[in-house]
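pasting for ref. prot 1 ->
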Amino acid sequence: MLLFLRSYLSSPPLLTKAIDGELLYLYLGISYEAISSVLVREEVRQQKPIYYISSVLHGAELRYPIAEKAALAVVTSARKLRPYFQSHPIIVLTNQPLRQILQKPECSGRLIKWAVELGEFEITFQQRSAIRAQALADFIVECTPCPSNSNPKPNDWTLYVDGASSSKGSGAGALLLGPEGYRSEHALKFNFDATNNMAEYEALLLGLQLALQLQISVIQVYSDSQLVVNQINSICEVVDPVMVKYVALVAELKCNFQKFCLSKIPRAENEQADLLSKFASDSSSSSKSVFVEVLDEPSFMKPRMMEISTNLDTPSWTDSIISFLRDGIVPEDRQEAMKLRKKASRYTLVDGILYKRSFSLPLLRCLNPYEAEYALREVQEGVCGSHVGARTLAHKVLRQGYYWPNMYKDATHFVQKCPRCQFFAHLTH
């Protein structure tokens, strides 16, 4: 079974060649910020891909209705795959009423223009009855990267927070709603005595931290606590020393959003977040669908940590790649700039940290020389260290999710300097 799976993964389906005049099928994939399509042909009741395209939406295109985005996907496919559309009859399989939309006399100007442009081709629209190649179109549109300078749609992300404190316990709940039906529920249980106002603030901090982890820049927050809303919006003065610390924490998180709005809503409209907070505060409740996190002390009592530079500003192999990915800085030499662009295509930046793309592994954290030496020492001499050989040591570090260019060479030098490794090297383990 393992050999079959390995052979299947190593031989993906290739693009096929269309026969002159045969019937072709077009599947569409639509999302908020991208469109895609897959052109396929049928052979012995199997659909084989011929070509696929994808395009990122910009500006006003982001505000098109779903049906108009589907029509735009057909027009884009006809422009990029014009030889196929001119020499083959095309059947567009979609769940949108494109034929009725493009033939309406009262349609908008751009739809009329698209209808005239598509009129020269032999295109038939049919209702999609099965998934089949639609899964490939959806996969392409999901993998189409969004440009880094694209602006998010305002108020796409909504956060509902609430806290509860009673004799049975106290807890907080946060409900995050996003585009395309995204929904995330989080609950927080307190192992300390918390007032109702403290629970409300902990719920707000929980929701904001969740939003920052998802790299959300524009968010609308709703809470049923009049005190919290007024204090955060500077409507009333903060007197309680504990509330002052909570307001400072929220203000620190607010600075990470491009747009932040906190509004008061009635308790009846905040029912779902209220249920999450009560669920967390009740120790007898249990659910597999809601993850309950335990907080042992108030958030303002957690120790503040400061990042300390360990490389002492020494040059590292990651500097040029990070500068290119973050700021677009390239060497003045043309050949060196070309080499850097090719090399940088295999790396990515996540929260300012450099990672290497891998074919069969997750993203690998890139280490500078100081961090690489520490990783080798921990794997070789740590709690579970076994003083293995250089090749095995480099492989173990790689499997832990770390990477740097001279892994095997550095592992060899490290093993040669290790007395225990040299003493037991001749023994059979």
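and prot 2 ->
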Amino acid sequence: KQDISVRDVAGFPFVNATLPKRCNSGIEKCSVISGPNEVERLSQENENGDVIYSKVLSGDRKVFRLETVLDATPEEIHHILWKVEEMHQWNPSIKNIKVLKQAGPETMVTHEVSAETAGNLIGQRDFLSVRHFSRQESCIYLGGAATHLETFPPQKGFVRAEDGPTCIIIEPLADDTGRSHFTWLLNMDVKGWLPKSIVNQALPRAQVDFTRCLRRRLAEGPTHYQLLHTGIS
């Protein structure tokens, strides 16, 4: 297994020069994907209020959209999701995530390894991704897209999947109850030789499982963000 250091990645000129632009472009593409045209509803609302839709993209690949309501503010949800290196602590589908490069407070390059869990139809994968967040009025957007670095090739023993692009949109509810509308657009090429029917079954299931884990994390109590901002307007 090749030993790749954070310094190797940090020295690659692509990282600082184009990451924010690529991620903002990805968020814009996700906004187009999330439009109402040619969208199929895949599931009835479950006990948590989750609903999943799908849309066929060029190349016959599907993007999946999960919509639900979470009992937390956009800032609280964003704070948890942006601490990617802690995500494996509350999401058993992730083995680990390593931040390889922080390109400012809003952009980072990460390497993620999925866990080998029971019922995982896709199997273990790794991802090399650019992650970026932005704010537009009261909404928070978290975008991601696959990237390629010569200094960080696919790792031995893993199939490298690709996000392309994916986006989470967090918007406060109008009733001012501290809850948020949560939309997750998942657009992924899992690679390998899996039948599309298996992939199209596994990805929306993964969305529901992830959101269930996120709810549990939110229910555990105040986040570090909440503790820091108690009493601060």
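The radius of gyration is 18 Å.
The chain is about 25% helix and 30% strand.
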